[in-house]
Amino acid sequence: MSINVNGNPVELPGDPRVSLLDLLRERLLLTGTKKGCNQGACGACSVLVDGERIISCLALAVQYEGRSVTTVEGLAEDGALHPLQAAFIAHDGFQCGYCTPGQLCSALGMAAEARRGLPSAVTADLEADSMPLTRDEIRERMSGNLCRCGAHNGIVDAILDACAGGGR
Q1: Could you give the CA distance from residue 38 to residue 150 in angstroms, rounded to a whole number?
Q2: What residues pair up with 46 in beta bridges, in sequence order?
Q3: Do you know which PROSITE patterns this protein is assigned to (predicted)?
Q4: What is the CATH number of domain 2-74?
């Protein structure tokens, strides 16, 4: 049994109780994904599974057999930052940086959801093929990712810059 993590095949642990977060951090030493509350409330452990955002502390690693997991370490390509990572830097979308990996992964998943037309609680046109990412949409859709430092304005600006135009 294996999964793909950041483009590499990884054997799943024999213990079915191992969370995806613990597999990533403790066994694969991919410590970019953070353990915040370990209860699914803060979003610090957000990763992408087949392009969709999930909270990895609530997921068992064995649930994702045969699937593709992307952590913050897998966002950069050929040594170049992902455009969203660069936008976070340009817009001061972090202070302490603890929540940043989860914010980045969640934002990319959120942008993909909007492009697919999945509405949020503040979406005006529920029948649109895609949802424009306005400040209100971004704030609502990213509400599951907490930033204790208060860098929310920079985070929203970075997401608008990198993702609102359909960035990858």
Answers
A1: 21
A2: 55
A3: 2FE2S_FER_1 (PS00197), 2FE2S_FER_2 (PS51085)
A4: 3.10.20.30
Separation between Cα atoms, residue 44 and residue 22, nearest integer Å: 13
Q: How far is it, in rounded angstroms, from Cα 163 to Cα 150?
A: 21
| The pLDDT of residue 167 | 46
Q: Which option is the CATH number for 83-163: 2.60.40.420, 1.10.150.120, 3.90.1150.10, 1.10.357.10? A: 1.10.150.120
Q: Would you say 25 and 13 are in contact if contact means Cβ atoms under 8 Å apart?
A: no
CB 99 within 8 A of CB 142: no
- Domain regions of the chain by residue span: 2-74, 83-163
Going from the C-alpha of 103 to that of each of 60, 66, 139, the distances in angstroms are: 21, 25, 12
pLDDT tens string, the chain, 168 residues long: the values are: 999 999 999 999 999 999 999 999 999 999 999 999 999 999 999 999 999 999 999 999 999 999 999 999 999 999 899 999 999 999 999 999 999 999 999 999 999 999 999 999 999 888 888 888 999 999 999 999 999 998 999 999 999 999 876 444
Give the residue from 48, 164, 55, 47 showing the smallest Cα distance to 115: 164
